Every structure is written in C-alpha cells, then in structure tokens.
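Fill in residues.
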C-alpha cells in the first residue's frame, strides 16, 4: 500500500522507529517538567523524615566534632578573585567534621558518608 508516494509495506519499521523516538522524547520532556512520576523536592524529603527528634539529636550528621582556626591564603589565587578571604593574610574559620548518621552514638565506620562544613568570616 502506498500513501503519498511512500510504500508502507517496506518503510513501516523506519516509521515505527521515528514514532518511538518522538514518544520517548515527549515522555522525557514531560518527566523533566514534573508531569510524570513523583518528584523528590526539598519539602517532600523533609516531610518524609522523622519529626520527633529528642533533645540533642540532629536529623543528619548527628556525630561530629567542631573546630576553629585560621585560614591563611598563599595569595596565589588573589589574581583570579577579589574575595577578601584570598587577599587578606588571615581569615577566621569555624567548622564541623561529621559522619552521615543521625545517631550521636554511631561507630565512626558506620557509614561511608563523611562531611565537613566550614564558615570563613572575613
């Protein structure tokens, strides 16, 4: 059978492939726009976690140690940035090393997630 000069008996696999590509692209755009599937947002993540933490417990990274010190810049980055932390000789630093477990009594090797948070105050 021919439609518009195209022999459908020979070209149906190519047309089916083109249709499949169009369907996959349409589904990908719909998913990216949030129309398909459950999206994990900050709010849904926080709503799914426990809300009844005893005093002294944290939702995540419950075991850690705080530190304070001084950040000393070598000056090598000063030509790439105008930030005071790189142009002045010393900057006060405070921070916290922690493991990604909400229990403050967890063993140090109980998780492979290790983090460091640091605040530099110029």
């Amino acid at each position: 059978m021919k439609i518009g000069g195209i022999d459908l008996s020979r070209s149906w696999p190519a047309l089916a492939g083109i249709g499949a590509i169009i369907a996959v692209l349409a589904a990908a755009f719909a998913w990216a726009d949030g129309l398909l599937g459950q999206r994990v947002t900050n709010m849904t993540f926080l709503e799914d976690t426990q809300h009844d933490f005893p005093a002294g417990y944290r939702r995540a990274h419950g075991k850690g140690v705080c530190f304070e010190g001084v950040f000393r810049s070598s000056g090598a980055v000063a030509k790439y940035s105008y930030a005071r932390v790189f142009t002045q000789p010393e900057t006060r630093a405070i921070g916290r090393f922690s493991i990604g477990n909400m229990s403050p009594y967890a063993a140090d090797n109980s998780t492979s997630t290790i983090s460091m948070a640091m605040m530099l105050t110029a």
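The first helix runs from residue 8 to 32.
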